[in-house]
Design a protein that fits this description.
CATH superfamily of the largest domain: ANL, N-terminal domain
Radius of gyration: 23 Å
CATH class of the largest domain: Alpha Beta
Structural class: alpha/beta
Strand content: 15-25%
CATH architecture of the largest domain: 3-Layer(aba) Sandwich
CATH topology of the largest domain: Rossmann fold
Number of strands: 20
Number of helices: 11
Largest sheet: 8 strands, mixed
Distance between the termini: 78 Å
Shape: globular
Oligomer: single chain
Helix content: 25-40%
Number of domains: 3
């Protein structure tokens, strides 16, 4: 007879809550149900939302095809609205005086923070990165300019964790404070973390209490491995002042998991047309937030949907690491290269992996290189790809094929390698 004690033990995933393991169809249905409710309530209070929804019946909003009929709002639109009607341009359902904070960022853009617990939705990402109740968090993101410091702090408080805000402190003060208080968690940029560890090593200050970190921005494979060898497990997240925490690494570093309470679409960068399944595009995100019901916000970041769910047990959409600035580009011989060129090349050659346009200086001349992940007959592909590159960019360039998976997620789709001088 087989007893319970003889049964093999199956490890359960360590998750933030049950929302993370919902059946995708159930999550989709609930997202649109909640979106209809939020928009119905907010429409009368939010002038910008009324204008965006003009001629659209919110009660009929049931699918992504319905959502795609609504105009996209981008940062430049919010900037114009805020100039006309400060502080938030008529985009908030909650009056400014009832907000917890008004955060000012680049270009004097104002971002609201409401009173609700974990208003930015950062607790999931911090939990996935290893933060647990009672652990002290070193917050190296600024509180004075931009939202990232506040996003991290809000999520840490929601998990029951005290925060050490050290962004403005000299490095000598940072490392000595860490050595004395012994926090286990760091949040900031990867570059900041490396500088901190290097400084501590050079000055023989013990900061080995830090075991986990959540970083935002670039993190190359080499640097991640260096952190691992130093005993720090580092994961990444992507957040904006408009949307809060959008996506985060969970389980493995091969992609990001979309946060709960968001609807993600991918469109042609700077445009409105949805990209084909599997193609890279600009992230357009709808945030289900009663205070700040941001509908179809164009983030300017490029990503693509990954076909397989996370190995950690979370069932939400998986995406490639977002690359910020969809409008990135480079000047080349009087022509402007931009990310839409990459999107069109990928559309015409769907059998290719990641693509990069590289501008380089050689023998006193600018040269254009298209790097493409590809496995197969390079000779025939090179000829057709060279022709496509010329047709789309109007520039003669060369093709470099690389091994699939070798192009990093954390660099732009256009890389300018020319010296600054």
């Amino acid at each position: 007879m087989l007893t319970l004690s003889a049964l093999p033990m199956i490890a359960m995933p360590d998750l933030f809550d049950r929302l993370e393991t919902r059946v995708p169809q159930t999550r989709e249905s609930i997202l649109f149900r909640d979106l209809r409710h939020i928009l119905t309530v907010a429409k009368s209070r939010v002038p910008a939302l009324r204008a965006q929804l003009k001629g659209f019946d919110v009660a009929m909003l049931a699918t992504r095809a319905d959502l795609a009929r609504i105009p996209i709002v981008r940062r430049r639109d919010l900037e114009a609205l805020q100039v006309d009607a400060p502080p938030f341009g008529g985009t908030c359902a909650t009056r400014p005086g009832a907000m917890k904070q008004i955060i000012v960022g680049d270009g004097l853009m104002a971002a609201p923070e409401g009173q609700a617990k974990d208003w930015w939705g950062a607790a999931r990402a911090l939990y996935a990165a290893g933060l647990r109740k009672g652990s002290v968090v070193v917050n190296a993101f600024s509180y004075d300019w931009g939202a990232q410091g506040h996003i991290v702090a809000s999520g840490a408080y929601a998990l029951g964790c005290p925060v050490m805000p050290l962004a403005g402190a000299p490095m000598s003060v940072k490392v000595r404070a860490i050595a004395r208080i012994k926090p286990r968690f760091f949040s900031g940029t990867a570059e900041h973390l490396k500088s901190l560890l290097d400084y501590a090593g050079e000055h023989e200050v013990d900061v080995s209490s830090i075991k986990h970190a959540l970083v935002m921005g670039p993190l190359g494979a080499g640097l991640r491995n260096e952190f691992h060898l130093r005993g720090v497990a580092v994961t990444r997240a992507f957040a904006t002042a408009e949307l809060g925490l959008v996506a985060y690494e969970s389980g493995t570093p091969d992609g990001f998991t979309l946060n709960e309470g968001l609807i993600l679409e991918l469109v042609v960068p700077g445009g409105a047309a949805l990209v084909e399944p599997g193609e890279a595009g600009e992230m357009v995100v709808t945030r289900l937030n009663a205070d700040y019901p941001l509908l179809r916000f164009g983030t300017g970041a490029i990503s693509a949907i990954l076909p397989h769910p996370s190995a950690c047990g979370r069932t939400n959409t998986r995406i490639r690491a977002p690359v910020e600035h969809a409008a990135e580009g480079a000047e080349f011989c009087g022509m402007r290269l931009h990310s839409e060129h990459i999107v069109e090349i990928a559309r015409r050659h769907p059998n290719l992996g990641r693509l990069r346009l590289v501008v380089r200086r050689a023998k006193e001349q600018d040269v254009l290189i298209l790097r493409a992940e590809h496995r197969g007959d390079e000779a025939s592909m090179s000829e057709s790809l060279t022709e496509t590159l010329h047709k789309i960019t109007q520039i003669r360039g060369t093709i470099e094929f690389v091994t699939p998976g070798s192009l990093p997620d954390d660099e732009g789709v256009i890389v300018d390698e020319r010296p600054l001088n």
